[in-house]
């Protein structure tokens, strides 16, 4: 599906993407963004385009550990905004609030420091991949629990067959490339 963000960043993502079958386990086609990160020109263009797309529309950028951090930090700096780290369980020193969520097998937990998010802020959540949507949905719950507004969920790659959007109802979900 074509959209404005796709037009800005779709090609640079596709030109620098690596696909690895059966990683990290049989049956998974792993979409690897590290070639994009290693290409300075491409990575710079990606961040420039994201910044232009969201300039003036958000107050903070939240990155999801760990690949989301790589995108959130330069985007926040480029926009002159703060970056919020939403982390896996046990990584942030307290006090924290956390949300448990379902993985394909078992459960996981995401946490954030309450002081990192302010009431009424428009927070953009960013990550590399939207798969089942569990990680992003947990991040949405954390941002909202602290009285902030989720301005949108942005991912470079959306694996549409896993229906992650269904876990993010009513939200602006934008992706660079949809598979
Ligand atoms: O939509 P979901 O089914 O929740 O999956 C998407 C998440 O999975 C990957 O992270 P992973 O947990 O592998 O961690 P990493 O970023 O530290 O590699 C990816 O970076 C997303 O955060
Ligand atoms: N297929 C995939 N490739 C890369 N990261 C992922 N996270 C969840 N599914 C993924």
Content of β-strand? 25-35%
Q: What's the Cα radius of gyration?
A: 15 Å
Count of helical regions: 5
Which fold name fills CATH's third level, the topology? Rossmann fold
Q: Sheet with the most strands? A: 7 strands, mixed
CATH class: Alpha Beta
Write up this protein.
- It is a single chain.
- The mean pLDDT is 96.
- This protein is 31% helix and 32% strand.
- It is α/β, with parallel strands linked by helices.
- The chain has helices spanning 4-14, 34-38, 40-54, 67-79, 134-145; strands spanning 18-21, 29-32, 60-64, 82-88, 97-102, 107-112, 122-130, 149-158, 173-178.
- The strands form 2 sheets. It has a 7-stranded mixed beta sheet, with helices on both faces. The chain has a two-stranded antiparallel sheet with strand order 1-2.
- The chain has 5 helices and 9 strands; from the N terminus they run αββααβαββββαββ.
- The longest helix is centred in the N-terminal third of the chain and has 15 residues, at 40-54.
- It has one domain (3-178): 3-Layer(aba) Sandwich (Rossmann fold), CATH 3.40.50.2020.
- Adenine binds next to strand 2.
- This is Adenine phosphoribosyltransferase.
- It catalyses: AMP + diphosphate = 5-phospho-alpha-D-ribose 1-diphosphate + adenine.
- Belongs to the purine/pyrimidine phosphoribosyltransferase family.
- Homodimer.
- It is found in: Cytoplasm.
Q: What's the helix and strand layout?
A:
Elements: H1 4-14, E1 18-21, E2 29-32, H2 34-38, H3 40-54, E3 60-64, H4 67-79, E4 82-88, E5 97-102, E6 107-112, E7 122-130, H5 134-145, E8 149-158, E9 173-178
Parallel strand pairs: 3-4, 3-7, 7-8, 8-9
Antiparallel strand pairs: 1-2, 4-6, 5-6
Helix pairs in contact: 1-3, 3-4
Bound molecules: 1-O-pyrophosphono-5-O-phosphono-alpha-D-ribofuranose and adenine.
GO biological process, one term: purine ribonucleoside salvage
Pathway: Purine metabolism; AMP biosynthesis via salvage pathway; AMP from adenine: step 1/1
Family: Belongs to the purine/pyrimidine phosphoribosyltransferase family.
